[in-house]
Amino acid sequence: MDDPMAIPPNSEDGLNMPTDNSSTTNPLLTLIHDLKENNGRPGSVCTILLKVLAGNTDGLFVDDGSSINYQGATPKEIHGEFRSECTYTAELDTHFPELTVGETLDFAIATRSSQSQYVKNVKDVLVDIFNLSGAVTTQVGNGFIRGISGGEKKRLSIAEAMVGFSSIQCCDNSTRGMDSSTALRIIHHFRDLATHREATIIVSLYQASQRALDAFDKVTVLYRGQQIFFGTWADGLKYFHSLGFQIPPQMTTGDFFTALTNPAEARLLVREGMGSQVPGTAEGFHKIWRESKERKLLLNGIKMFNQECLPRAEMVDQLRKLRTAERGWSITLHTTSQSSDKSNCASVEVFQRNKNNIALPISTVIGNTIIGVIVGSVFYNLSQASDSLNRRTILLFFVVLLNSFMTGFEVLAVWAQRPIVEKHSKYAFYHPFTEAISAMLVDLPAKIFTCLFFNIVIYFMTNLRRTAAAFFTYLLFSSTVLMTMSMFYRSIDSLSRTLQGSMVPINTAIVFFIIYTGFVIPERYMHPWFSWIRFLNPVAFAFESVLINEFANRRFECNQFVPSGPAYDAISTSDRICSSVGALPGQTFVDGTTYLKTVFNYSPDHLWRNYWILLIMMLGLCATHILSSEYILAKKSKGEVLLFLCNKALICNPKMDEEAKAGQSPGIKNLIDEKNKQPEAPKGLNDHSSTFCWDNLCYDIKAEGKPKRPLNEVNGWVKKGTLTALMGATGAGKTTMLDVLS
């Protein structure tokens, strides 16, 4: 039977970066050592290089002198029409935390084929290869949802990327969070992909054992952003030996390459008598590399490759026909399978996320219903007399505001999903706009129930206008303004490239929407410079309409006159007037239409005009959200940077004896630790003398409604002044145990 994970063969792929980093890669495996990260310095040269090779250049500038040749295809073609052929797997794992491991893989595979048996076969293979069988029914999780371990997340990320059948795969720190055995197994799997399926895989490893390094064909060493070697690791040993360095017997090759970029460690690797000849800086290493015969051979290989694989349309057409014939579906500009199938997959995925996290919509409905009860109790059973006019106005103002702002949490929800959606788009799983549409449709039932329960409770508790037409009109405007403001939040989110960039306009708009609703500042008192805001304010149109719906063509009997008192009870109606605003002399009631005209300058004719304005706003904001989610990407960081706050600085010794100077490499400083000084413990840390112990520690979680026990009868203790190691294979429950104990 054919292997369901089979990747179509890919012939030679050329990667040419002649400025600083030059290499050609056949169907082989390349290891990139991120030497700056290994030494704890800020920046991630390896991450940047992998992003450039994979086409993730957002926030990065690639020099015009650099060139990348994908066997006759230009970077624009590869990262546009064939973007699924070259993928980047980031060091930090991004997954939907609500989905289980199995659902995550099912969705990724379903975007490639709608055949259920194929999806099942491929998932079974991936689960077996990456040892995820024990976590298939477990949610991925995040900081709020208990889920799988960090090593399992990393393996899930790699498995998800493998589903895309990419010919070129760039994996950043692909063994993060894994034990040595699991990491070695992943490396051997990469080796099999490169050997048997002719995939080109570029991997960065921060700690490479010798057995892992043996699996790689090529190694490139980077030092502060500059290439100092490219070739096999055996040739690398010879090359650096010729420079005057020697690897100690107990040191692995990977650690040796890493140590060369640390001046303090490199000094200890210098062969006897070579101290004055070895380079000591990144510039020195790079200068020697540029003049070396190894680099000349590399450049000759690049030149020959570029001559054989000149960018031309025939190569692109050939690749297009090859992928169409092998995979059974055509490749278009932004997708690699039928759009309808991808839309269905996105809808199913969003539905599964909501189903697995059903507590959120349920709590939203219940919470807003409780708020409705509280507001209704404050304005409970308003009278039908004129003294309720002001209270009814205040009530409707707050009701419109609550309906408008109860979906404000979507600001954070959209941003939590955005990096995951963009990653899936890079993998050509689906269009981002399909996920945006699916999310709006799946969230619709929760919004409807929230709107119904909240507004029905308030409407009948407060004794608003008791006619069927008024009730359903009130519900219509309440739901419409809720959806309009929801589209407003989503559109601002998708138009912004950072969360901070979206919060500023949203918060500013909310303030102006409240002030220029027409209640805080009536229309006639608005300053001309800012009065135009009310024409862009959906809250203002909804407020006007619900007031018209409540007061228009309705009489409120007056229960307080001016003058009033026992002495004035016998006077005729024509000699006194109702004390409420909008009353006319000689009338014992207040006409609602007159009240609206007098106080707010509202006209009943605006009722349905406002509804169409709200509807147009909602549709326009919805279209803006859909289009911007497709074409505007979130701002990417230029590289993960880890900063350490140093309490004790290293001291540079200005005095050196002649013997030390003779063995010192140029540019290398003699760094001396304060070994004789013990760091003082933080204040209060020594006050505890008790022993921390745990007995029969158990921890249960639910997976698909069934109990699961990650920790079962764990015993132990930690005494003051001791250091305890927590050990176990990836997924054993180490992180879970630390969380429980803390």
TrEMBL record:
Record region (Disordered): 1-23, 662-685
Superkingdom of origin organism: Eukaryota
Transmembrane segments: 358-382, 394-416, 436-460, 472-492, 504-522, 611-633
Stretches with biased composition (Basic and acidic residues): 671-680
Name used for this protein in its record: p-loop containing nucleoside triphosphate hydrolase
Family: Belongs to the ABC transporter superfamily. ABCG family. PDR (TC 3.A.1.205) subfamily.
Domain ABC transporter residue range list: 17-249
Subcellular location, principal: membrane
InterPro entries found in the cross-reference section: ABC2_TM, ABC_transporter-like_ATP-bd, ABC_transporter-like_CS, P-loop_NTPase, PDR_CDR_ABC
Record-linked PANTHER family: ATP-BINDING CASSETTE TRANSPORTER
Location of the protein in the cell: Membrane
